[in-house]
Design a protein that fits this description.
Length: 483
């Protein structure tokens, strides 16, 4: 490989990470802006959650489908189509004039993200050979996941406070346009050359099952977790997914070859990713509500409060990528889950009269280590041993597990907060104290889930996974070498 082509692929990696950062950012960036959106567009309180849920529904529901489509028709092609869809929907979201227009635009945004993310990750996988080189690239990918989740809240607060909530969507447009222009220059196209047909029934079944599952999870708080409607939706999802498994087991060229699940590391990474999404994504929503509703932070103050975790998570991610190569996935992931659990446990002591330094900062610093040391090894392990032809499929599986985990975590922990708060108010507690009790209960639940992640990392992931032989060197840009 020539020096020029070597530089090209690292520049291509920078492009992929920038686009993925944009996609991850949009998961969290709306949280701080929701009150302003509701006021300007006259959203009923019950409908406001759909600004978040519509994105999650289409993102999580279509990931697996478009991951496999990318394998079959071309990864760069799907990546470019996804950029067009995402940018167009972002522009329409910013220009939304009423409740329905914003929800439709957000759903379309999620659809674009479901095209972009698995295609980008599979391009990364097929560009960098397995081992130290790919671990370095995936370290950047995992760092974007850890950093983007909290940077979204930071950016959302600043943009909403000083410009307008519309700008949390408008900022995506120039990024997507530049990425669309650079992609043909920096990214190679690839596809599964052995595929002869597309499993359309399997695609319909798995997409329908996942969309129904995510819908049931996101609407559980609206209908109630004990309602017949909630369980009817979830049961329907189970039936559709069972039909998908039955169909796939009888196909010569299935959409999801079950042989991929023979990779123990991949299975463990997806289970850990589900737990990580469930435990961590919802916490940022709870912390945002605590800061705004209890501590009365403004949108920009809430965003700046996350600066400590956003600024340090990327550094821990770089270190985690190096350590995975030297000592393996298992010890790094276990360490990350331990720190994540510790950070979540720290937040269980938040109080009505709390302050940033005592109630939040130590927890943020613990979580930054946990996120960096968890996202990176999980991202690497999810693609370990996967054939290049199945890159999009493995990418779709990994991202689906995290998105469903995030939707599940938000639904469950929001229900916990609502239930505890209502009971405390009924018992005579003040609204502020009742809210704090609800948030504390949610943090306990999140910490318990993270603790399960420790057990998964100890029991499912093998210590020998992804430890590189001594002596391998990788030519990387100076910036990455320094990291």
């Amino acid at each position: 490989m020539t020096i020029g082509s070597t530089r090209r692929k690292w520049y291509g990696l920078a492009l992929l990470l920038t686009v993925q950062f944009m996609v991850v950012l949009d998961i969290a960036i709306v949280n701080v802006a929701l009150p302003s959106i509701g006021k300007d567009l006259h959203f009923p309180t019950a409908s406001l959650q759909w600004v978040v849920s519509a994105y999650a529904l289409f993102f999580g529901g279509f990931l697996l489908l478009f991951g496999r489509v990318a394998d079959l028709i071309g990864r760069r092609k799907v990546f470019l189509i996804g950029l067009v869809v995402f940018a167009s929907a972002s522009l329409l979201s910013g220009l939304a004039w009423n409740e329905a227009s914003l929800i439709i635009a957000r759903a379309t945004q999620g659809l674009g993200a479901a095209m972009v993310t698995p295609a980008a990750l599979s391009i990364l996988m097929t560009t960098f050979k397995e081992g130290k080189e790919r671990n370095l690239a995936l370290g950047g990918w995992g760092g974007v996941g850890a950093f983007g989740a909290v940077a979204g809240v930071l950016a959302g607060g600043v943009l909403t406070e000083y410009l307008n909530w519309s700008w949390i969507f408008f900022v995506n447009v120039p990024v997507a346009i530049v990425a669309f222009g650079l992609a043909p220059l920096l990214l190679d196209d690839s596809r599964d050359e052995h595929a002869k047909s597309f499993d359309l029934p399997g695609a319909v079944l798995v997409t329908g099952g996942l969309v129904t599952l995510v819908y049931g999870i996101t609407q559980a708080n609206h209908y109630g977790w004990t309602s017949v409607t909630t369980w009817a939706i979830l049961a329907s999802a189970g039936v559709i997914l069972a039909a998908f498994l039955f169909w796939e087991s009888r196909q010569a060229e299935p959409l999801v070859p079950f042989s991929i699940f023979r990779l123990r590391t991949l299975v463990g990474a997806n289970v850990a990713g589900l737990i990580l999404g469930t435990a961590s994504f919802s916490v940022f929503l709870m912390l945002t509500l605590y800061m705004q509703n209890v501590l009365h932070y403004s949108a920009v103050q809430t965003g700046l409060a996350y600066l400590a975790i956003a600024a340090t998570a990327i550094l821990w991610s770089g270190l985690a990528a190096q350590l995975v190569t030297r000592i393996g996935v298992k010890p790094v992931l276990t360490t990350g889950m331990v720190f994540l659990t510790a950070g979540l446990l720290y937040f269980t002591q938040v109080s009505v009269g709390g302050n940033y330094v005592d109630d939040l900062l130590p927890g943020f610093l613990l979580m930054s280590v946990g996120l960096g040391f968890s996202f990176v090894p999980i991202s690497i392990a999810a693609l370990a041993g996967v054939k290049a032809d199945d890159a999009g499929l493995a990418s779709g599986l990994f991202n689906t597990s995290q998105q469903i985990g995030g939707a599940l975590g938000i639904a469950i922990l929001s229900a916990v907060v609502t239930s505890v708060t209502s009971n405390k108010v009924a018992d005579g507690a003040s609204v502020a104290q009742a809210s704090v009790d609800g948030y504390q209960a949610a943090f306990i639940g999140a910490a318990a889930l993270a603790a399960v992640g420790i057990l998964v990392s100890l029991t499912v992931i093998r210590r020998s996974d992804l430890v590189e032989p001594a002596g391998e060197t990788v030519e990387a840009p100076p910036l990455l070498e320094a990291a």
